[in-house]
Structures are given as structure tokens and as C-alpha cells.
Amino acid sequence: MEGLRLVAKGAEADLWLDSDWNGVRVLIKRRGLKEYRVPELDAEIRRSRTSRTAREASVIHRAKEAGVPTPLIYQVDLEAATIVMEYVEGERVREMVDVLGDDERRELFRLIGRTAGRMHGAGIIHGDLTTSNMIRSGGRVVFIDFGLGEVSWEVESRGVDLNLMYRMLTSTHYGHTAELFKVFREGYEEGLGPEAGEALTRMEEIGRRGRYLERE
Q1: CATH dotted code for 5-86
Q2: Residues 21-25: contacts with CB under 8 Å, at least 24 apart
Q3: What is the pLDDT of residues 41-89, one digit of tens each?
Q4: Residue among 103, 128, 145, 161 flagged as catalytic
Q5: Which of 83, 111, 170, 214 lies 20 to 30 Å from 70, alpha-carbon distance?
Q6: Does the annotation count 14 as an active-site position?
Q7: What percent of the chain has pLDDT above 90?
Q8: CATH architecture of 91-215
């Protein structure tokens, strides 16, 4: 991987920055392959990597078609379990929350909610809906890292996505949780429409389930 720089190493995949891939700056997401002595296990892992890579690329493409800002995909290599995608210039939302003014912070989260609603309306579940996976780039909020994403119209899946967003706010941005989720919710209702109420109700039910299990 000469000329590449490792920018993130995860359990599921590594992320590399290439500043000059066919003349453009890109991120390369590669699902690593471990060496195993058991051929059957190795073959199963290879099939899983291929499947997850194909699914992630498909989900990103579907989201973009629905008007959800996502990185452009330049190349998909299923055999190497690699996706070459646009490097999005901007700042991760997680790092911006505490430095923005009140009005700008609220407007940003209303936009995030509207985008999440549009995404769910297209049948896409992000799977890791947190401010770590959002980049403000100009006037857009770009959703990134769809590695846990899936296509689903189920209200339960939407509720799980929303519950994760709420839990993230309470743990990472606890000083602004109430105001930010209020405007996120308003934006989500704008983006999804009449189906938003059911998804938000399910989110609350999932939250209660989690608290009940914690007490046991």
C-alpha cells in the first residue's frame, strides 16, 4: 500500500487516505483478511467480506439516489473487499457541537433530522446513526460509514436507528440533549412525513426496554 496513509483501523475494516488516486483525493475502505488454517473458515470469511462490501456500496448508492448526501463511490472491488470513495472535505459533526452558537447548532440538527427522515423514507437504515458518522461540508451534512447499513422498511429498524441517535446525544452531547433532539425530531418529521410518528414512538419503546433490562 505504498503512497497510502492509514487513517482509521477498525475491527471490521481499515480506512486509507490516498491523496492522488487517478488525480483525486479518496478514501479506500478495505475489509481485512486474516490468515486461517481451516480452509472452510477462510472461505466463509471471504464470502462474508464480499457480501458486506456489496451491501454497503448498494446502500450508499440507494441513499444518494434518495437525495441523502453521501460520498461518491468511484470503484468497488468485491474480490478485494474494497470500496474507493470520495474524500469529503469538512468537519465531523461530533467535533462541532460544543463550539457552535445556539441557533446554528439547532439548525444543523434540524437538517440532520430532515436527512435522516429522507433516508428512512427510502428504506435505508444507517445502523450507526451518530454524529461521528456525519460531516458538515458547506451547506450539507454528509452521512458516512454505512458498514452496518441495510435496506428495511420495518418500523422497528427505524426505531433502533433513532434510539441510537438519542443515546449518542445523551452520552456525547449531554449538555445539549433536550434542545438538539427536539429540533432533530422536527426535522425528522419533515423528512419522513406521516410515518415519522410511529418510528419515534417505537424509539421510545425501545428505550424503555433497554432501561428495563438494565435494572434486571
Answers
A1: 3.30.200.20
A2: 21/74, 21/84, 22/74, 24/74, 24/86, 24/87, 25/87
A3: 766 777 888 899 999 999 999 999 999 999 999 999 998 899 999 999 9
A4: 128
A5: 170
A6: no
A7: 78
A8: Orthogonal Bundle (1.10)
